[in-house]
Amino acid sequence: HRTKMVIANAIYFKGLWTLPFEKSDTRDSQFTLLDGRKKDIKLMYKHMEGTSFCNFQNIEAKAVCLSFKESKLRMFILLPNREDGLPQLLNKIFTDGPTPHGKGDKPYLDMFLSLTHYYREEVNLYLPRFKIGEGDPSVNLNDTMMKLGVSKIFDRDVADFSGMTDVRRLFVSSIVHCAVLEVDEEGAEAAAATGIGIMLECSRRPKQVDFKVTHPFVVAIADDQGTPL
């Protein structure tokens, strides 16, 4: 085995909802997958007043933000208006949009994670219990790092780790990221490990909003500055 060193970075988070879901309100329901198939799920329900909500017309999606007890972290849920709209939504939130001056600004993703675009609304939230990352959730980040300009560490001829070890000709063969997220009535539990503008138009909605998460969506945990976990 030629591996000389493994560098690991790990994150663990377990948050309790500020306002938990009542287990007695959880019902059997169905979730529509991208290919149109239906999957049986447990659908939680909570009526919330004064909840952070936004209808992002520019990207044809709506979002809610849920807070955790005694934490600056929040969970953001972005739901495309169409059942099959997730691929198009992902393309939009990871690209720059036009500003009034015609130039690119912050990605839509940054706007999604900024509470300045949300307003307080009365929301009926239907959210499935779910766990993301079961099995083998690892993702190889080599290509991503190279696109960011981090390439020398992968080249055995130019990589330089002399500040860390006396071993010569040391280079990085792979960087792997692994993440798990579990959500239920009490809160969210997340673990992650890594080995080594536009101004969105947020329109007002009717006084009470039904936010039913029964098709593919985007979920993120971020702090009050919009920095993802």
Report on the structure:
The strands form three sheets. Strands 2, 3, 4, 5, 8, 13, 14 and 15 form an eight-stranded mixed sheet that branches. The protein has a single domain (8-196, 205-222), classed as Alpha-1-antitrypsin, domain 1 (Roll). The chain has 229 residues and is mainly beta. The chain has helices at residues 86-93, 108-112, 142-147; strands at 8-16, 27-32, 38-56, 61-67, 74-80, 96-98, 104-107, 119-128, 130-132, 139-140, 176-183, 187-195, 202-203, 208-212, 218-222. A hairpin with a 6-residue loop joins β4 (61-67) and β5. The model is unreliable at 98-104 and 197-202 (pLDDT under 50). The protein is elongated and about 65 Å long. The chain has three helices and 15 strands.
Describe this structure in a few short sentences.
Pfam families: Serpin. The protein is mainly beta and 229 residues long.
Q: Number of DSSP strands? A: 15
User: Could you tell me the radius of gyration in angstroms?
Assistant: 21 Å
**Order of SSEs, N→C?**
EEEEEHEEHEEEHEEEEE
Any idea what the CATH architecture is? Roll
The tally of structural domains comes to 1
Report the sheet with the most strands, covering strand number, pairing sense and barrel closure. Answer: 8 strands, mixed
The first-level CATH class name = Mainly Beta
CATH superfamily: Alpha-1-antitrypsin, domain 1
Structure class: mainly beta
